[in-house]
Amino acid sequence: MKKFLTTLTLIAVTILLAPAVHASDCFRDPIYDRDWNAEVTTGAFIRDVACMKGSEIITTLAVGTIAHVIAETDGWYKIETPDGQIGWVGQWLVEQTSKSFTETAEEPEPETISEDVVEEDNAPMYDINNHKYEDAIWYVYENSIVNGYEDGSYKPDNTVNRAELLKIIVEAAFNDEFEGYGDKNCFSDVPANEWYTKYVCFAKEEGIVEGYSGNMFKPTNEISFVEALKITMVGFDYDFAEETPWYKDIVVQASEGNFIPLDVTQFNQNFTRAQMADLITRILKSRKGELEEYLGDSAEEVVTYEDLN
């Protein structure tokens, strides 16, 4: 009996000391076995590893496809596709289902799908693949801060306008307090029940925006870097001093936090949707203590006030 107990003890110690099985992904998270079916809710890329950066796309699954989930790691499912391929898919693109593995949508022809040209029904935000801010855009998408456009695109290099900016800020910095503001008429050019009304009117009441003379907000106006930065910093409740020029302390504080995207070179340059995703991701990651991990090799690169003109 003593020998038997000793053997059990050695086995237990061996298990405890054994290295964890990890995914071949960016974050080295543990893998857990799973055994259930999932339905694709938004057309999805299937990748060779559980990682946006450095992974290769194996195939694409259309909405309605049933896949078999065989493992899970942080943010990802390892699946078997109907044609027997094994790969990783973002958890936000599928949901558990009781449907049979044999029940599936018609598979798209493989030769019509590529990383560069993806039909809009097959993948969300197909135009951000290999973009330098791809990770940031996926992060804000995964956290329900952005949704992309109806045609499946994100248009990362388009300049963000004032209405789009406020949606991103309010969705990122608040819970659902803004939901009751959709029927307001808080500015003369912000009618009730537009998609952006609840964000603009909530932001006005919170003191995040003030608008222009004539009680106008100009929701479709494109926005510059310093304008976007001010609204973002106010939305996330950062305090700053009034200086000349008015944006100096805002930029200085953002620089000290390493919030400024590295390709910002001018105070008044147009601010793109991709840069906005990076700015928001930097702030959210900083608050979680994960900014350095997110920035990786560029963690020591900081845009300063003196760098801009």
Number of domains: 2
Q: What profile does the largest beta sheet have?
A: 5 strands, antiparallel
Structural class: alpha+beta
Poorly predicted sequence stretches spanning 5 or more consecutive residues: 1-22, 104-122
Helix content: 25-40%
Number of helices: 8
Radius of gyration from CA coordinates? 23 Å
Fraction in beta strands: 5-15%
| Total strands | 7
What is the element string, with H for helices and E for strands? HEEEEEEEHHHHHHH
N- to C-terminal separation? Answer: 79 Å
Strand order of the largest sheet: 6-5-4-1-7
Mean pLDDT: 81
Give the overall form. Answer: globular
List keywords for this structure.
8 helices; alpha+beta; 5-stranded antiparallel beta sheet; two-stranded antiparallel ribbon; disordered N terminus; 28% helix; 7 strands
